[in-house]
Structures are given as structure tokens and as C-alpha cells.
Amino acid sequence: MKDLTVSLIQADLHWEEIDANLAMFEELMWSVDQTDLVVLPEMFTTGFSMNAEHLAEPPGGKTFKWMRQMATQLKVAVTGSYIVKDKGNYYNRLYFVFPDGSSQQYDKKHLFNLAAEGETYVPGNERLILNYKGWNIHPLICYDLRFPVWARSRRLEGQLYEYDLLLYVANWPDTRINAWDALLKARAIENLSYGLGVNRVGVDGVDKNYNGHSAVYTPKGEELTFSDGKEEILTVALSAEDLQKYREDFPFQSDADEFSID
Description:
CATH architecture: 4-Layer Sandwich
Order of helices and strands: EHEHHEEEHEEHEHEEEEEH
Radius of gyration: 17 Å
Distance between the termini: 32 Å
Helix content: 10-25%
CATH topology: Nitrilase/N-carbamoyl-D-aminoacid amidohydrolase
Shape: globular
Number of strands: 13
Number of domains: 1
CATH superfamily: Carbon-nitrogen hydrolase
Number of helices: 7
Structural class: alpha/beta
CATH class: Alpha Beta
């Protein structure tokens, strides 16, 4: 397990304009130098839209092909969520695409019903923990951040820590940004992992304002990088040595509760 360099792209999304967003992110991604993983916001091709009937793509459609092309050309992993129609249902689906073009997926579990997300999309029911460059990574989506049990690192047989990096992609409005800041840091601390969150900026098509606050936190809760209110690419190296040493010095996970999720 070596250091992992991550790049967070905090951008102002074009409302419900898939091609415009893909073109914007393609240009931004080509400007990133020396990274292992590029993280895009939630619903990065449309903004947080309930117009799934007109915007959804099939599995393996345009956006997925674009993600795979960018990953293989740039030789980086790429992740973010967008609207997918699969077997007649709509999902807020995150894809993690590896540099070789292979992929894994996660469907958002906790749907934001204050915006009627649950009336449009079907929730996922499976957590995803994947391995990339020796790091175990747990990707989640926006509102999932409010539910610590879903993110909790569990002790497995012969394995004290379930993952090393907890990752959130989001469209989190500025009116509730204090919760985003506090919970993102808390998830890193309580799970003794790096905590990463990518949010958008700008105003969407239903007049919600977003001010970013994309950030990365250490297991101590220390801020490694942070951006407020502007379009920006944040690139930071996550130290494998620092993570392992902190876990050895403060093995809190050995006292964690054992539980399962039905």
C-alpha cells in the first residue's frame, strides 16, 4: 500500500445538459497532473434532477463510455454518479472506473425525500468496498452522509479495518453546509480512515445554491484540503504510512461494536 493521490473537481454544473457537462469535465480532467483518482460530484452530468425520464441513460451508455475513455486515456481511476435506467427502474448510480476500463458500481441507498428523490429513484441495498492500488475504498453518495451506520467500518475476520478511504460525492446546498462539514469530518474520525467529499458550486435549475466545501480529512480530523464557493480542482496525496501509524498508535477499532446490517 503506497500513497494515493486524489483529485477533487468542484464545478458549477450545467443544468440537465449532459453533453455540456461531459465537455467541461473532460477539459478539466486533462488539466490535472499526476493523480491516481479523479472524483466528480453527484449527478455530475445533470445536477440534482428528478427529470429521470428524459435524462436517464442505460448501463454502459454515453456517460459510462465517456468515463471509461477518460480513465483509460489518462490512466487514472474516475468516479462520480449520474442517472441510470436499469431494468425499468431509475437509479442515482455511482460508477468507479479503473484505469484498465473495468468498473464497479453503487446505487445510492438513502434517497433525499425532501426533494422527492424517493418518488423517482429506487434505493440501492448493497454497500460497495473496492480495492484500488492497495487501498480499500468505500464510495457513498450525498445524503448517505447523514447515516453513520451505513458507513461504519466493521471488523471482519482477520481484518480490523474494512476500508482506508471513505468517499462521498454530493450536491449539498449551502443552507445545510454546516452539517456537511461536521459530518464529513466525523465520519473520518469515527472510522479511522481518510474522509473525502466532493460537492458542487453554483445555482441549479430549481434555485438551490451550492458553495462547495469539498474537502479531505485525516483520521485525526485534520483538514488536508478545502475549497469554498468557487470552481476548483483540489489534488492531495494521502499518506499510507501516516494512516497505518495512527491506527497502530490509537487502535480504537479494536473496541468497536460488532453488528450487521439487514
